[in-house]
Structure formats: C-alpha cells, structure tokens
User: Fold this.
Amino acid sequence: MVVFNIDDLRKGMSKTVKKTITIPDYLNKLAKKEKINVSKVITEALESILLED
Assistant:
C-alpha cells in the first residue's frame, strides 16, 4: 500500500499536459451544445478513479 498526501501531490504536479483523445462525434456535439468543458470532465473523472480513498 502506498500512502501519500493528495494536497502535497497536487502542489508538485500542477503542470498540465496537452493530450489528444478520441470521443464519439455525438458526445462531442452534445458537449459543445451544453458548453461542457471536456478537459475538466476528464480530469475530474480520472481523479475520481485514480485518487479515490
């Protein structure tokens, strides 16, 4: 088991990187229509999966 403080981790890793992803066209159209920030959604989803307690 690896134990770490997420706040300390975020401080040292605040740099962002550009990633290219592929999503279905219909989801892209819906996200644009609803003005959804796809990068934010993906970031939150990854944090939820990878950093859950």
